[in-house]
Amino acid sequence: MENIARMIYDDRHKEILFHEAYQCISFSLDNREIYPHPKAYEKFEGVLKHIERYFDREWLKEKINFEEYDLGDDEEEK
Description:
Blueprint: H1 2-7, H2 11-30, H3 38-52, H4 57-61
């Protein structure tokens, strides 16, 4: 994940990438009956803790409303 983040030049995009990864991994941990592989949990928990070292935990738990962001002036840009 960090390798991918290094390739992204925009810091805000990096933040969103880590935020969405956190959301997806948290969902997996909260729904162990859907994702039953026991060894994955230990790894997933480590990834969450790693992300929490760099970002506010409360922010990571919030949903991002992408409707608030201007994605361009016309439909082609959006």
